[in-house]
Amino acid sequence: MIPPVRLSLLDRSRTRLGEPDAAALQHTVERAIHAEELGHHRFWVAEHHGVPGIASGSPAVLIAAVAGRTGRIRVGSGGVMLPNHQPLVVAEQFAMLEALYPGRIDLGVGRSLGFTSPVRAALRRDVDAPDTFAADLAELRAYLDGRAAVTARPQLDHAVPVYVLATGRGLAVAGAAGLPVVVGGPVLDGAGIVEALADYRARALAAGARPYVIVSLDVLVADSDAAARELALPEAWALAAARTTGQFPALEPVDLERPLSSRQRTLVEDAVGRTVAGSAATVSAQLDDLFARTGADELLASTSTFDRAALWESDARLARLLA
Questions:
Q1: For the whole model, what pTM was predicted?
Q2: What is the CATH T-level fold of the domain 6-219+276-322, as seen in this structure?
Q3: Domain coordinates of the chain in residue numbers?
């Protein structure tokens, strides 16, 4: 039996073969409207630069579009990559969003650099640059809290909630700062996740804050395990392509006869294996185990597939499963 947890979505504005990038952004907004109708708690968008498969490079702008077309659901970033921005500018952007859509804006922040060397160069970020994430996070919070020497405007009477997307030692940074944490990918798959989350919770409590854990992963619910596995293949293929060609491509239709190298086949199987995909009963059992291991408070489903109708139906099935 799945314990009570909040359900949210992270939409990365995935592009699709044969469609312009603008279509991906429009469909992100439409999916947010659908998520609100389903009763999801929050809807987050991403920041990626120079990636063919992702159209979202400016989360603050996309958040404004989503919030303007919805009325209740919380809207935020998953996340703003602090190495790419001045903390004051991020504070100003999200204070403005909160002023326009009060009580609905989240600021998720991460530390990832650009995907490729040309992108990092365009962002003026050297891969060997010192890690200033903890200091940047503290500076950002000072602007949002009104404690900095410079006042971020519009000035608010409350701070925008901040969440840390944790990879590696980001869990320790989040705990020391007393902030909610979002874990996924390698951290969630790692053997030491239980110990890492226990350390995070201890640090957060020591900082006088209530620990809050959001787990983020791909979740697809379909009529059968086989049907859900097929829905997972387009994203798995894109991940395999990125690892073998250096390009993260647009989503393509399912092609069970797609020619793959042995390495690509292994990468596809690994990606599918990391996806929670199956019938309602299969997904329920997997999520039950996940929440038992992590004690998570919320699920942030970051799912993508080529078939938008099937994706929306999966969103609806997952909402019913966690209702």
A1: 0.95
A2: TIM Barrel (3.20.20)
A3: 6-219+276-322
